[in-house]
Amino acid sequence: MSVLPDSSFIHTLHHGERKLEEATEFIGRIKSNSDWKAPIFTSDDWFYEKAFLAQYGFDHTPPYAGRVRYPHPKRLSLPGLKYVRVQKKRDEKGRLLKIQYSFVYGTSRELEIIFETAERCKTINTVYVESRNGKFRKDDARPIRPTLCHSKKSVFHDAQANFTAQVMNYTQANDGSKTHQPQCRSF
User: Fold this and answer.
1) Each residue of 136-156: pLDDT tens digit?
2) Exposed (0-12), middle (13-18) or buried (19+): which is 39, by Cβ within 10 Å?
């Protein structure tokens, strides 16, 4: 799931297993749903680095040095790509001990400048995606095995997830009323 931090809008939703091919397809869908510019990416400790190079990279052949063999082309990232891997360390009870950041693409200074001017998100984190995942688990009983509404076929599960994402994007609960009727969200 790709979430825009300033609005919590679910930008792209992808269904599949945690494999490199699926990650590459997911990043490609993010790219095609946006303006094709490389945004800032933060993720958990997963293999997105190769998927980003496949979608937001180009082949560069170093110049021939005049000796031995011609160099092989190397895959380099686009200059505007910024990707930070967030690694959370927890104790045996699951409590958060510390968070480590690995700047895969981009520098810490480039990201500091971006976060200083951001409206809502002021730190590097994955909280917006984690929040949406928690709401998905709360609002959708299809992935839960012991329930009557468990999806045995992935097509039904995927359709329900897409529907839940659209409901989350275009409605929000009015916390001021007692009945919590959904109201249209203005963008």
Assistant:
1) 777 777 766 666 666 677 788
2) middle
Q: What's the pTM?
A: 0.71
Name 27's Cβ contacts closer than 8 Å, sequence gap at least 6: 48, 51, 52, 54, 55, 56
pLDDT of residue 184: 41
Do 126 and 42 contact (CB within 8 A), yes or no? yes
Task: Give the residue numbers spanning the domain of 157.
Answer: 138-187
- The Cα–Cα gap between 101 and 115 comes to 15
| CA-derived radius of gyration, the chain | 20
The pairing of beta strand 82-90 with beta strand 96-105: antiparallel
Are the CB atoms for 18 and 46 separated by under 8 Å? yes
Give how many domains the chain has, as a whole number. 1
